[in-house]
TrEMBL record:
SUPFAM superfamilies: Radical SAM enzymes (SSF102114). The chain crosses the membrane at residues 20-41. It comes from the Archaea. InterPro entries: Elp3/MiaA/NifB-like_rSAM, Radical_SAM_N2, rSAM, rSAM_horseshoe, rSAM_sf. This is Radical SAM domain protein. One of its GO terms (molecular function) is catalytic activity. It comes from Archaeoglobus profundus (strain DSM 5631 / JCM 9629 / NBRC 100127 / Av18). Keywords: Membrane, Transmembrane, Transmembrane helix. The keyword Transmembrane helix applies. Residues 177-405 form the Radical SAM core domain.
Length: 481
């Protein structure tokens, strides 16, 4: 059941735009950027926009009126996760959609080449305050889509973004989303930190925060509509007025939950506020077990910060901690992997509940670690073998002391291929994905270390950084040992 659904009446002559989220409703409806696009397109006189979700009619008929996707003139796909590419290909095939196919979202901004074959154009950036949506709404052919921030599959493109976040969606759809039933308050974009593995800081730069008054005014409109507010940003507690904002929202009677927390921002006052706001468990991302590897990642977090945060949390009444780690990083040794177990043991010794989630590291485009091999080991076969050994070790040791989930090495290898590949990767998308098939198709070469002077499939996107800076950081991180 949705509050505030924007249902526009059908009439003859309207341009029909399908907003397709090739994944579950609960995560799609939580995406405030998509809500903005939906509201904006429906506000245009000559246009109707309806939503499509994978778990509602398999994305083949619309959420609002059940209209088949094939009846729409334009399909706008949101690419949030590389693994959704398989769903995209299936949806396009099964729907028989013949209109204009456009994609946007973080995967399009990172590297759209592997999925390029299936679309006419890609939106590279954030569309608010740009001409892109008006251009899309008027477009009758691919040529009509020519505009700043749209990549028509040749040449270079510069990312677009609003310089200031001085606007906010006034009629948000409230639904049961991945954060629960809540108002989503996007407090900022981009990140002031410089973690070397993180693509968010690169593709959403520069960091931009919403003004406290705008956020409070927006929340005011939802008093009596929702009990809870989820604060969304890549690093929520870095908002210059985060504490004041949380305190004000609590005073207004809301429960408050941040979408992310950094251990070094969890001081006594902040944790006390978060507990008052209803937080019962804390998520911390140490990323790795040792300070040495954390320095390579430029995480800006020490073991002391992590242990401090747990101690403060416990003192303020939080007893459950979720920890995120990665394996397969450059320069990682088996001893470093053992350090993860040691750190978790140390946290457990503080007598708190711990659950651990570990992902193999994906060297993402546009980051200083983009040239690294998947697994961090030079020869792909050796790397895959070794990282599987590390994974098994972690499952065996950590499951003795806490709940643990270590993601599949194969699954993340495929993700790396989809993230770093070129157009030839598209042939993998119509099959059932497996590493064996990727190998047969000669695609496992995208798991290899990349020479620093290579031209990269995603070099055509200008995100505003200088490649020389990334190279410098890569050298500092990986070769400075
Ligand atoms: S703090 Fe989080 S969002 Fe910011 S750069 Fe580091 S990993 Fe990325």
């Amino acid at each position: 059941m949705e509050n505030n659904p924007f249902i526009k009446k059908w009439r003859k002559g309207l341009r029909k735009i399908a907003l397709v989220y090739p994944n579950a409703y609960a995560s799609g409806v939580a995406n405030i950027g998509l809500q903005y696009i939906y509201a904006y397109l429906n506000s245009l006189e000559n246009c109707i926009c309806e939503r499509f979700y994978l778990d509602i009619h398999n994305c083949l008929r619309s959420f609002e009126s059940g209209t088949p996707l094939s009846d729409f003139d334009i399909a706008l796909f949101s690419l949030q996760f590389e693994e959704d590419y398989f769903n995209v290909v299936k949806i396009l095939k099964e729907s028989g959609f013949k209109g204009l196919k456009i994609a946007g979202g973080p995967c399009a901004m990172i590297n759209p080449k592997p999925i390029a074959k299936y679309f006419d154009a890609f939106v590279i950036g954030e569309v608010e305050n740009s001409r892109v949506l008006d251009v899309i709404a008027e477009a009758r052919s691919v040529e009509d889509l020519e505009c700043e921030g749209v990549w028509l599959k040749e040449g270079k493109v510069k990312r677009i973004y609003p310089k200031r976040l001085d606007f906010y969606l006034r009629r948000q759809i409230i639904a049961d989303n991945v954060f629960g039933r809540c108002l989503i308050l996007e407090i900022g974009r981009g990140c002031i930190r410089r973690c070397r593995f993180c693509v968010v800081r690169q593709i959403y730069s520069p960091p931009r925060w919403r003004d406290l008054k705008l956020l409070i005014d927006t929340a005011e409109d939802y008093k009596g509509v929702v009990d809870k507010i989820c604060l969304v940003a890549p690093s929520t507690l870095d908002h210059p007025r985060a504490k004041e904002l949380i305190a004000r929202l609590i005073e207004m009677g809301f429960l408050v939950s941040p979408s992310s927390t950094r251990a070094d921002k969890l001081d006594e006052e902040t944790v006390e506020l978060l507990v008052k706001g209803g937080l019962r468990s804390l998520t911390i991302a140490p990323e790795v077990g040792s300070d040495k590897l954390r320095d390579i990642l430029n995480k800006g977090l020490s073991e002391e910060h992590i242990l401090n945060a747990v101690e403060i949390g416990k003192e303020k009444g939080i007893n459950s901690f979720k920890l995120y780690f990665m394996i397969g990083l450059p320069n990682e040794s088996f001893e470093d992997v053992k350090e993860i177990v040691r750190l978790v043991e140390k946290i457990k010794s503080l007598k708190v509940e711990v659950s651990v989630s570990i992902n193999p590291f994906v060297p993402k485009p546009h980051t200083p670690l983009q040239w690294c091999s998947y697994t961090g080991i030079e020869r792909v076969e050796d790397g895959l073998k070794e990282i599987k050994r590390r994974r098994e070790y972690l499952i065996k040791e950590l499951s003795k002391i806490c709940e643990v989930n270590v993601e599949s090495v194969e699954r993340f290898a495929i993700q790396t291929i989809l993230s770093r590949g070129d157009e030839d990767v598209s042939k993998l998308l119509e099959a059932k994905p497996s590493l064996r098939l990727a190998k047969k198709m000669n695609l496992t070469r995208y798991l290899e270390k990349i020479p620093l002077d290579s031209e990269l499939p995603w070099d055509f996107i200008d995100h505003g950084y200088k490649k020389e800076r990334l190279i410098k950081e890569f050298i500092q991180a990986v070769w400075s040992e």
